[in-house]
């Protein structure tokens, strides 16, 4: 075990948070804190001085400009410049070997500090990628935090002639399937299908009328009944997650009641080859108290304890939504991705714990990085299937480089190739091949 002392003039939970994140990604390395200058100077071996001025030549000095302790809850924008491969932020003092305040930079990205002060939202009340600093620096698709962490470790290894390597993960990429509706037509009340028929007929959507009639009369399989496709992928249970929309009464919450026998039956099937997770309803971002109720309903219907979730429509408000998840005893959240842009929203492909910037503490809610969503490519980036695969390949290359643990979002409804998904017929198979190829590199 390599112990690396860090000298700080002022101890702070933010600094320990960042140090914990870095050391958790590497094998046989741990940071320890020293606030006594003489004690630090007398330490032998690799060590880091995080203060205003260098103390000796036998240290790695990282200038502490004090920005780590600033109030980031307002519209604060750190200084930035381009490095050799990716941008650097908090680079006001470039006299050190790294040339920027790596601890402040990592904290600012992981804590999502810029999302606290944002006033502009999209139509769903979401912070969008174009408002982020990494979008301005054209680096949303680079795991900058992992790059910065690696730069720090490389400096340590080079200066002190030691070897520190990343931890090996069991799984590189998982697939998360959002079930917003179990079925498109089946198992719905008669009046809903009747109204749907009338609406489609009046709008001239005769192909939808025909399709609905065939499905309701059991002459054709429901287009959202795609669960056999996911089972046939033969992913491990910790590589395939289903996120079940479990409530809500808005126009964006259309799933079947969890009390239906047909729903309970499909849940029993899904849990034999995947992990069942919660998909809190659209309004849960504002009305955080309903998450507990929706979680209990899903647990009762599925007959198991639910510990993971992802927000419906990727809607969350910081810090309210994450505090509500903690109160509901959710352990892991998979919402950390932009709806409008594939990439690394928090700048990392590593799991990390949510930091409550208001209460100034690291929480027990683990944030899992998600790098892409099917509808992001179709609706927002408007990429072709070929360009989308190329984009995923680039994102996965970064993930492999840094031994990351990320997820890609799909929907059970994204196989409707006669309508909006026309032209994407072979995309899902290519995606599964990419996932399996990445995971085989362990």
Would you give an account of this structure?
The protein is an alpha/beta fold. The protein has two domains: 159 residues; 229 residues, TIM Barrel (Alpha-Beta Barrel). It contains 15 helices and 14 strands. The strands form three sheets. Strands 7, 8, 9, 10, 11, 12, 13 and 14 form an eight-stranded mixed sheet that branches. Strands 2-1-3-4 form a four-stranded parallel sheet. A two-stranded antiparallel ribbon has the order 5-6. Strand 8, helix 10 and strand 9 form a beta-alpha-beta unit. The longest helix has 17 residues. The mean pLDDT is 90.
Radius of gyration: 24 Å
CATH class of the largest domain: Alpha Beta
Structural category? alpha/beta
Note the run of SSEs as H and E: EHEHEEEEHHHHEHHHEHEHEHEEEHHEH
The CATH H-level homologous superfamily of the largest domain = Glycoside hydrolase/deacetylase
The N- and C-terminal alpha carbons lie at a distance of 23 Å
Oligomer: single chain
Give unreliable regions as ranges: none
CATH fold category name of the largest domain: TIM Barrel
How many E-type strands?
14
Largest sheet: 8 strands, mixed
- Helix share, percent: 25-40%
Secondary-structure arrangement, i.e. CATH architecture of the largest domain: Alpha-Beta Barrel
Number of helices: 15
- Mean pLDDT score: 90
Shape, principal axes of CA atoms: elongated
Instruction: Give the number of domains.
Output: 2
Fraction in beta strands: 15-25%
């Amino acid at each position: 075990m390599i112990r690396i002392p860090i000298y700080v003039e002022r101890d702070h939970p933010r600094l320990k948070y960042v140090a914990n994140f870095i050391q958790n990604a590497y094998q046989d390395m741990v940071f320890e804190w020293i606030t006594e200058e003489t004690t630090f100077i007398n330490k032998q071996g690799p060590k880091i001085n995080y203060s205003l001025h260098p103390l000796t030549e036998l240290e790695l000095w990282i200038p502490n400009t004090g920005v780590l302790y600033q109030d980031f809850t307002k519209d604060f924008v750190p200084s930035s410049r381009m490095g050799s491969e990716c941008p650097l932020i908090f680079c006001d003092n470039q006299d050190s070997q790294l040339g920027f305040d790596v601890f402040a930079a990592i904290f600012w990205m992981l804590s999502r500090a810029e999302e606290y002060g944002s006033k502009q939202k999209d139509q769903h009340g979401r912070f969008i990628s174009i408002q982020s600093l990494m979008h301005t620096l054209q680096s949303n698709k680079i795991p900058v935090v992992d790059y910065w962490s690696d730069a720090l470790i490389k400096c340590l290894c080079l200066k002190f002639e030691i070897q520190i390597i990343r931890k090996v993960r069991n799984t590189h990429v998982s697939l998360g399937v959002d079930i917003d509706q179990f079925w498109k037509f089946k198992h719905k009340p008669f009046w809903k299908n009747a109204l749907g028929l009338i609406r489609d007929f009046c709008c001239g959507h005769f192909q939808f009328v025909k399709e609905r009639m065939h499905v309701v009369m059991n002459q054709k399989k429901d287009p959202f009944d795609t669960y056999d496709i996911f089972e046939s992928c033969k992913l491990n249970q910790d590589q395939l997650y289903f996120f079940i929309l479990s409530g809500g009464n808005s126009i964006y919450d259309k799933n079947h009641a969890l009390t239906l026998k047909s729903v309970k039956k499909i849940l029993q099937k899904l849990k034999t080859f995947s992990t069942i997770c919660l998909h809190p309803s659209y309004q849960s971002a504002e009305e955080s108290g309903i998450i507990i109720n929706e979680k209990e309903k899903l647990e009762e219907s599925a007959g198991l304890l639910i510990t993971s979730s992802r927000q419906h429509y990727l809607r969350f408000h910081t810090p309210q939504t994450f505090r509500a998840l903690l109160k509901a005893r959710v352990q892991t959240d998979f919402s950390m991705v932009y709806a409008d842009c594939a990439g690394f929203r928090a700048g990392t492909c590593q799991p990390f714990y949510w930091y409550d910037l208001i209460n100034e503490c690291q929480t027990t809610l683990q944030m899992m990085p998600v790098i892409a969503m099917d509808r992001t490519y179709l609706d927002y980036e408007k990429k072709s299937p070929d360009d989308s695969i190329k984009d995923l390949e680039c994102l996965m290359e970064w993930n492999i480089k840094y031994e990351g643990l990320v997820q890609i979002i799909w929907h059970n409804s994204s196989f409707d190739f006669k309508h909006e998904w026309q032209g994407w017929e072979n995309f899902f198979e290519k995606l599964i091949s990419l996932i399996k190829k990445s995971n085989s590199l362990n």
